[in-house]
């Protein structure tokens, strides 16, 4: 090992210098003290103690100065740290000293801080920080109040030190804002990198939007030659531009990157425009883009399809309006004829009791149809105001109305479904809800299993923001493995031996969705079916006449 290597390994410090000096002094004393002071032993000892004391004095003094410098250095770091910090008693939390950042953050002077305890900074209850420290936690999130009683979300960090418990306060709101800014910057960078990698259209523009450089793809889309394109303004190339170039330029002058679209002769381009560099002749801009002609064509087709659907929907509404209006005429005639039969001419006495009962049921059915047509007419007339047409509906009453209409289907006049109504009233559109229940109960009655008595359970409850209806029967059931995709289709029938039109479940699903709800079905052949419908609970200013939830 060379002398240079030895010098590199040894770091010359004051401590090493003093140790070597003391060692040299000791060796010299051992070798020469007897020769110089051999006859004066007392003087020899006195001289040794004196010289050693002087040496120790300078050593202690040196280390005291060193500690003072370190203390001043740490004091400087504490005072000028941008993070609010203070020292406090680890047992009772009495604050002993704070730095400038703490005074600025909380609005208290250093003298006021020294009069406070750690708990005095907290929003009541005021023991969270102290309890966290005493329980061994190194950090805790608390809510502090500054001198103006403003709330601060703070994360406190604890650390033991010779001066006491060192507490550092980090503002979580500022931390979240910095994180959000970093996240935004990261996203912008990722978007820029992705755009550069995938760009198929590239150009460099001057401050007047003239094309300085352009790649082959942009030249092709512009319909010009390279010589014709270079030097031409971007505004002279496009057929349509969103947003306008003047608005784009204002954003660019603020240092922002711009996303825009333009239509050229041979297609659409979606592009990113950003500041490229600034020279003596002014700023230049970089255009990075992709051809989006196919997406634009698809968008145009979608708009055309939407317009067509709107038109068809309007035609369908008009047709339904006419049908609902025209159907009221024969219904009114039926009601008129029934009124004539019941007129006080004595003719009603010629009817038997059974005929009179049948006429009464016919009258009830006709009146119900008339009410439904009126409601449908009003619904179509006030299209777009369905929220105002909602009302609180008594579920027990509407189920009784449904059973009354289906009286001729009931196994016997006293048969009733099993009801489990945890909700007795819901806010909905009565005509739709009545139709949904009518179709589901009608299906349960029509498709009952002839081998066993019919049971039908209807339950309603409020759950996680929805009205949830469940109807479960023990009827013939449906083979969902074979008909899962057809069950709610138009004119779909699954038991051809029983008369029907295949409209019921289609209407149930359509009307459920018009109410913003969803429908789910479980069914097993020979065991029965279970329908679950969920409707969103819509806030309304109109309160129910009674408690809606029992």
Structure, described:
There is one protein chain. This protein starts with a helix and ends in a 14-residue tail after the last strand. It has 550 residues and is α+β, with helices and mostly antiparallel strands. The strands form 4 sheets. A 6-stranded antiparallel beta sheet has the order 7-6-11-10-9-8, sandwiched between helices. Strands 2-1-5-4-3 form a 5-stranded antiparallel beta sheet. It is elongated and about 160 Å long. A hairpin with a 6-residue loop joins strand 1 and strand 2. Mean pLDDT is 77; it is low at 384-388. Helix content is 48%, strand content 22%.
Summarize this entry quickly.
With 550 residues, the chain is α+β, with helices and mostly antiparallel strands. It is built from 17 helices and 18 strands.
